Amino acid sequence: MLKRIGIAGVTGLVGTTLLRILESGPQEITDLRLFASSRSTGAKVRFRDRDYEVKEVEPEGFKDLDVAFFCLEAGLAKKLAPKVAKHCPVIDKSSEFRLRDDVPLVVPEVNPDALKGHKNIIANPNCTTIPLVVALNPLHRRFGLERVWLASYQSASGAGRELLDQLHYETEFIALRRPPDTTGSPLPAQLADNVIPQIDALDAHGHSGEELKTIRETARILGLPGLKVTSTCVRVPVTIGHSLAVTGRFSRAVKVGDALRVLKDAPGIVLSPGNELATPADCRDKDAVFVCRVRPGAEPEELSFWVTTDNLRKGAALNAVQIAGLLLPA
């Protein structure tokens, strides 16, 4: 059972969300240690009617804990996670360890057995990959997945508090019918009243970093190293909630009715009945992956559908807490 917990990066959006999930959960936490960068050192964070002081991240501070949640950027995770892993298991949300053969990349509804034989570092997948594989996995098990096409519509919070604040700021200008002030924005263009068809740097072939994550992580989590994935990732002016338009091609013909029955019974999925829609606003502060608009593709073997989830919860913090629950069951 989770009783002694450390969180590195607790003042960020994912760290804050993780703390709130633990606060409302059943865990009887007896030792909570909170860490962040030096600029947040000394801050007070409330948890279950008690104030905790945030300390600077330091490996020795994680001694004798049951688990450490890392909500840090990749560079810091690379430096600190192996040192902390000498003291306790580390569940890391950064991209640093996701494709390493000796580090399991886990979505509990999909590949919990990947945790076997872990070496105290477990990677939490990308916030777009997680809902994608939760939706694809039951369909793959029934129909045999061969190819995926996707377009993602990713909220500002997926890039952190700085971009979320920038979106709020720019939206005020739009409400006043004025051009937004983008001075200091982390993006190359305004986000309010706009979409940006690039997330992260482009490689030599024109694929963005985010697109490569969805391509490579999806294949690894599903255990399909030869899976072909075509991905376009787009930043949209939404505060919280990542969505995907997905088409899968399977090894045999897929009837929509059969697919609906599979999705309805799948763990972690809320399937919208009939023609009801699921939007980012519907999924906020909820734990499930929402699926709607299930329909035939261009060929009998293809199926198209819409997926959305709270990227701070199931797309990040909740998935990490679920992994911890597998490591240390009640």
UniProtKB/TrEMBL annotation:
Keyword Ribosomal protein tagged: no
Enzyme class at the top of the EC tree: oxidoreductase
Native organism taxonomy: Bacteria, Bacteria division WOR-3
Keyword Oxidoreductase: yes
GO molecular-function term, one example from the UniProt record: aspartate-semialdehyde dehydrogenase activity
Protein name stated in the entry: Aspartate-semialdehyde dehydrogenase
Gene Ontology biological-process entries: amino acid biosynthetic process
Active-site positions on this chain: C127, H242
CDD domains: VcASADH2_like_N
Record keywords: Oxidoreductase
Signal peptide: none
Domain Semialdehyde dehydrogenase NAD-binding residues, every copy: 4-118
Enzyme Commission code: 1.2.1.11
Family: Belongs to the aspartate-semialdehyde dehydrogenase family.
Highest rank taxon of the organism: Bacteria
